[in-house]
Design brief:
788 residues; alpha+beta; nine-stranded antiparallel sheet; five-stranded antiparallel sheet; 19 helices; 32 strands; globular
Length: 788
């Protein structure tokens, strides 16, 4: 059920291109949205797509993953075990500002007379570029070109190439390059008419405290420290100037900003080229002096490399990425324009996923990546369920990095379990530093399924990559502690004929909270328990020394394994015999069905217009909870059960979550409702380019972007991987003539080319690979295509 229409970018201003997001004229109507869409990031450092001039701007932003402030969570009514400390990713000093003055007149886009304008996000080059021809008040024509990148190869580095040319005569030129921190920026998002929990926190006082500011030559270095978390930050810029025009420079530096001023006289047709290198370093323990020294070394290396080398490295990185990750679409001629838009949007999604994860290196994946401050830069369950599958099949090392980060939080997860009076470990629902940061337990910390989500991601990674070393050295410890929690939180119920029940939890659907026996939670917990048992039994048999070390370190008792096995075997799965459907949770059918007919579109999302308790009393769904279970654990349901469940729950799903339509599309494909699958797929893929949620100004929906890959590969491609066995059952919608993608399975690169009436499998790298096409087993050899 969808209640919103895309706000399409006008085609004459934003023409469709398969690899580029182009803007053909300055169009401030979409200012906030485009700052998000044009954001550049490498997973550690992110810069919103604001103009170099610093204005106009909806909400400028430069973010460093994991760099956060702490603040006390104040409850009007306190209770035992509530999270105590909030965490918010900070907006750090802006180093992108380059102001231009010609004959003392500022270049300011809203008032400038623009003879030509083009801005381009190039997803093959990894750059944001702009070309402008400006006619000054004196009638002089000034060409302005810029190209910006955030380096994938060099984690702490970004750069801007900036060129100014007086086209038709001499002109006095001043170029001011700044690095600036606005103490008010942390409250910087405009007020919302609603108390929207998806938005970032505002601080009453400045958060970053100045430590030092140094300037010498063309270089500026600032150091700051957060007030409460005591994290340190060093950010610096350096410049090169190339021109045959005569130029001088001056410089100044203060607590919160510094600038280099280049001034001189431009001659007709002679370009003035400035390259600005920007670096950011953060730490939880290193003093600012050390971080400043690191920043200096990064800038030294950047200046030595030069901008062209950085561009080549960026292109090389992306060439490798697209060779293994691209999804190619060819459309029916009747809908060619629509297909072209989907092609661009699909690549746009994959590009932003890469930007969000490529250099996380020991950090998590923020829900908005580093494109905005929505959800405060927190890491959620979205990572393992929506993004990890894409990474596992295309960039497994990046998937492993994210799983290793989860493992690094295990001790804090153990502490969190103690706080909520449970055994084992409970991973935080939302976090940056590993501590729980959710102040709302009903739709937040009660979502214990995050434990099973992490284990599900771990299992998929191991089965698809074959990396059992990671399983035995890190993963097994996660399995033990998560299984302990499930066994402790659940119980064998006499009222349910001795079945193992889990009460008082919230599933992925935040419109049904603190319920008994949520189907998604129970099934995922069952998988968690079973995988823990199977892994430990294998280790005990085949890796006895490692098993003994693990058992000693975790104080594992063998009787625990038997208890986990029993709980898994007797897990209660709620099912209604009369309707022959599974229950989202026990008692769900006893609730009143939401009055969709009399709920106008402007009342969605419901969470912004209705009291939570009013929502909780109804059959209404935000996240496609049970449908997600049918996708992830499809081998636990019959085909008829999937059809009945989908038909019942699809009608109750609001579309209030960006995470639903992709899953609805995949399952609709599986049950044969291809028209609905394509409709849902379209909404999933254009979620951000079409601003379907109305809040793209706050950042991209990275998990939904992972869903864009899933609708193509799991949905229309029909990929299933139960137990690590690869099978395909493609179902191509009539709107598409061809779908092609690649997956990496245990180090072997497989390309799948789907057309109406035929599918071709080609093993490009590896030795041999066994797959299944519908009911047919296929053995593939490298370089030998097989068409069925």
């Amino acid at each position: 059920m969808l209640h919103c229409e895309p706000i399409n970018l006008p085609e004459h201003i934003y023409p469709t291109h398969p690899w580029r997001l182009e803007e053909k004229q300055f169009y401030p109507r979409f200012l906030g949205q485009l700052e998000t869409l044009y954001a550049l990031s490498n997973g550690y450092l992110g810069i919103r797509g604001c103009f170099e001039e610093g204005a106009p701007s909806h909400h400028s932003g430069t973010f460093v993953n994991g760099f956060h402030e702490l603040w006390p969570i104040i409850y009007p009514e306190e209770a035992y075990g509530f999270a105590k400390t909030g965490q918010t990713m900070l907006n750090v000093p802006d180093s992108t500002i380059i102001k231009l003055y010609v004959d003392d007149e500022p270049f300011f886009l809203p008032t400038a007379k623009l003879l030509s304008y083009e801005r381009v996000l190039d997803m093959q080059a990894g750059t944001l570029s702009r070309k402008v021809l400006w006619e000054t008040p004196l009638g002089k024509q000034i060409a302005i070109e810029s190209c910006r990148l955030v380096s994938f190869k060099h984690r702490h580095l970004a750069a801007i190439f900036y060129e100014v040319t007086a086209v038709d005569g001499e002109a006095d030129i001043a170029i001011i390059s700044k690095i600036h921190y606005d103490p008010d920026a942390q409250s910087g998002q405009p007020s919302s008419p609603y108390n929207d929990p998806r938005r970032s926190r505002e601080f009453a006082s400045r958060v970053l405290l100045p430590q030092s500011c140094d300037v010498f030559g063309y270089r500026l270095v600032l150091a700051q420290q957060t007030r409460a978390s005591k994290m340190t930050l060093a950010c610096g810029v350096d410049h090169t100037l190339v021109s045959d025009c005569d130029f001088s420079s001056s410089r100044k530096c203060g607590d919160d900003s510094g600038e280099i001023v280049f001034s001189g006289e431009a001659r007709a047709g002679v370009p003035i080229q400035i390259t600005k290198y920007m670096t950011y370093h953060t730490s939880t323990h290193s003093p600012s002096e050390e971080l400043c020294a690191r920043a200096e070394r990064t800038l030294d290396r950047a200046v030595k490399l030069g901008f062209e080398n950085l561009q080549r490295g960026q292109r090389h990185y992306l060439d490798h990425f697209w060779a293994r990750s691209d999804v190619q679409l060819e459309g029916n001629p009747d809908v060619e324009n629509r297909t072209a838009a989907l092609q661009r949007a699909t690549r746009f999604s994959l590009f932003h996923i890469l930007q969000a994860v490529s250099r996380t290196d020991g950090l998590g994946l923020p829900a908005k990546g580093l494109t905005g401050q929505g959800y405060e830069g927190h890491y959620f369950w979205d990572t393992e369920i929506y993004v990890l599958p894409f990474l596992i099949y295309t960039n497994p090392e990046l998937a492993k990095n994210l799983l290793k980060f989860r493992y690094s939080l295990l001790d804090k997860a153990r502490q969190r379990a103690r706080m909520v009076s449970q055994k084992g470990a409970l991973f935080p629902w939302r976090t940056i530093n590993g501590e729980e940061a959710s102040a709302y337990y009903a739709a937040g910390t009660a979502q214990y399924h995050i434990n099973a989500d992490i284990v599900f991601g771990l299992r998929k990674y191991v089965e698809i990559t074959g990396d059992r070393k990671f399983l035995y050295e890190e993963g097994a410890e996660i399995l033990i502690e998560t299984a302990r929690l499930w066994c402790d939180i659940g119980f064998f119920s006499e009222r349910q004929a001795g079945k193992f029940c889990i009460h008082g939890v919230t599933g992925p659907d935040e419109y049904n909270t603190v319920v008994n026996d949520n189907l998604y939670t129970n099934l995922m917990a069952q998988e968690n328990l079973s995988y823990a048992v199977a892994t430990l039994e294998h280790m005990q048999r085949d890796l006895p020394e490692r098993f003994d070390d693990l058992a000693r370190d975790t104080k594992l008792d063998l009787c625990e394994i038997a208890a986990w096995q029993q709980a898994a075997e007797l897990m209660y799965i709620p099912f209604d015999e009369r309707l022959q459907i599974h229950l989202q949770h026990d008692g769900f059918l006893d609730e009143k069905v939401w009055d969709f007919e009399n709920t106008p579109p402007e009342k969605y999302p419901l969470l912004l217009h209705f009291h939570p308790l009013f929502i909780y009393r109804h059959q209404v769904i935000k996240q496609a909870d049970l449908v997600l279970a049918m996708f992830l654990l499809g081998d636990k349901f019959s085909a008829e059960q999937k059809r009945r469940n989908f038909e019942y729950y699809d009608a109750l799903t609001t579309g209030d979550s960006s995470l639903s339509v992709c899953i609805q599309s995949v399952v609709a494909s599986e049950i044969g409702d291809i028209d609905k699958a394509f409709t849902y797929a379209t909404y999933a893929i254009i979620m951000d380019l079409g601003n379907l949620s109305g809040n793209v100004k706050d950042g991209c929906h990275i998990a939904s972007m992972g869903g864009s890959w899933m609708v193509m590969v799991y949905g229309f491609g029909g990929l299933r991987d139960y137990g690590g066995e690869i099978s395909f059952d493609p179902k191509l919608p009539i709107e598409l003539n061809r779908l092609q993608f690649s997956v990496t399975v245990r180090g072997q690169l497989l390309t799948v080319d789907i057309q109406h009436g035929s599918v071709t499998y080609l093993l490009k790298e590896g030795a041999d690979l066994a797959i299944r096409h519908r009911d047919k087993d296929i053995s593939l050899s490298v370089g030998v295509p097989v068409t069925v």
